[in-house]
TrEMBL record:
Presence of the UniProt keyword Iron in the record: yes
InterPro entries in the record: Cyt_c-like_dom (IPR009056), Cyt_c-like_dom_sf (IPR036909), OxRdtase_Mopterin-bd_sf (IPR036374)
Record flagged with keyword Transmembrane helix: no
Protein name listed in UniProt: Cbb3-type cytochrome c oxidase subunit III
An MF annotation (GO) of this entry: metal ion binding
This protein's UniProt keywords: Heme, Iron, Metal-binding, Signal
Signal peptide: 1-20
Domain Cytochrome c: 175-258
Amino acid sequence: MTRAAAVLIVLVSILGSARAEPAAPPVAIADLVRQMTPVTVTTEDPVYKRSKSYVGYPLAAVLRAAWPDVDRWAEEGAELVLTAVDGYAPSMDLARALNHNGIVAFREADRPENDPWEPFAKGRSMLTPDPYYLVWTGIAADDPHFRWPYKLATVSVTSFDARYGGAAPPARANPQVQRGFRVFVQNCMPCHSVNLIGGNTGPELNVPKNITEYWSTRHIAAFIAAPESYRLRSKMPSFATLPEADRTAAVAYLSAMKTRKSCGEGKPC
Ligand code: HEC
């Protein structure tokens, strides 16, 4: 080995071990499950709103196949990002994902392999969960700590700060704005981005123009509660069941973000 190569190896291993934040780029689920043995589960399904049985792979096994360090990252408080083919990208606590019974389903147990999913209505279109659907057993469908994404394609790991820090409000922001940030991450970020951070099923809401710079906060609050009262066929679900204080806080957060715009990795717009 040349001296330069030896120095390079030492450098790479120092840099590698110094990386404090867990950060694993997206891995395709299809590539992880090839050798795995499927299991069958029955659950109260929040999408079909009845009991359903699925064949799939245990989520914990899928994540451990993806990354040997995943249990350590979980102890460090990492965040699991679940990205669907349409850009919907919710996240949840990685430790919680590893320690509960999640199944990455690839078909319904009582359907043939060449017709694996029952279609369901979403707005005016009919969808199926293809290619993968993350379901849970023993978890209430409305438990906000768990995600049930369908059309799931990839998994990735990041820290909460690495994923959402660039969309955090200014540190001196008032408690309502801080609360609104948490509400927004939980309920809105799977579809919307702020400073280009979040999903892209819905529009970006801060750059280059903050939504409160062209919609009044009153209309935003009313839209969130009842999108169809503004736009027939709106693709946004109603958040009427979210407590009003949370909706107001989410709007306060959006409004506060007009003083903190960035177009990716802290770059100004
Ligand atoms: C399932 C995806 C989804 C979720 C979750 C979601 N939205 Fe939306 N939202 C959309 C889509 C798609 C649009 C685009 C317009 C439409 O279809 O009405 C939209 C539009 C909007 C608009 C209007 C902006 C515009 O110019 O169209 C606002 C404001 C908004 N959403 C805020 C929120 C807030 C706040 C939350 C969380 C409480 C939220 N959304 C959650 C999908 C979503």
